[in-house]
């Protein structure tokens, strides 16, 4: 009887641990180049458009973005300075239900967005 309870308790702990959602990590990107705020803003906006993100300038050196893909919507915020920028997760939801959920593809989408921003900043017109 005690062994049965221990096994059930162990299974419940495993289920709860597996169901716990982690907030996706923020990507912080320092910049070594000599870029103006306008150049960084332009690179972020262009990279977002290239990757099908809907980007919006919020003022105060912050851009918000959202993407809808395969039934999920993710919202991010990108604060930036002349020294670098961060891609911060704001929210994720299932489009059909509006249910807040962890989006398993967020990490890949944000990494690719970051790579695109860096690629834009590497272009000769940004140097």
Please describe what this structure looks like.
The protein has helices spanning 2-19, 37-50, 106-122; strands at 27-30, 54-59, 62-69, 72-81, 84-94. With 127 residues, it is an alpha+beta fold. It has a single domain (23-126), classed as Alpha-D-Glucose-1,6-Bisphosphate, Chain A, domain 4 (2-Layer Sandwich), CATH 3.30.530. The chain has a five-stranded antiparallel sheet, with helices on one face. Helix 2 crosses helix 3 (106-122). It is elongated and about 45 Å long.
Query: What's the CATH class, please?
Result: Alpha Beta
Strand arrangement across the biggest beta sheet: 1-5-4-3-2
In CATH, the topology is named Alpha-D-Glucose-1,6-Bisphosphate, Chain A, domain 4
* Domain tally: 1
The protein's oligomeric status is single chain
Would you tell me the structural class of the helices and strands?
alpha+beta
- Note the gap between the termini: 71 Å
Largest sheet: 5 strands, antiparallel
**Proportion of residues in helical segments:** 25-40%
Indicate the radius of gyration in whole angstroms. 19 Å
Q: What is the typical, i.e. mean, pLDDT?
A: 83
Strand content: 25-35%
State the order of secondary-structure elements, H for helix, E for strand: HEHEEEEH
How many separate helices? 3
List keywords for this structure.
127 residues; alpha+beta; Alpha-D-Glucose-1,6-Bisphosphate, Chain A, domain 4; disordered N terminus
Q: Quick summary of this structure?
A:
The chain is 39% helix and 31% strand.
SSE layout and pairing:
Blueprint: H1 2-19, E1 27-30, H2 37-50, E2 54-59, E3 62-69, E4 72-81, E5 84-94, H3 106-122
Antiparallel strand pairs: 1-5, 2-3, 3-4, 4-5
Helix pairs in contact: 2-3
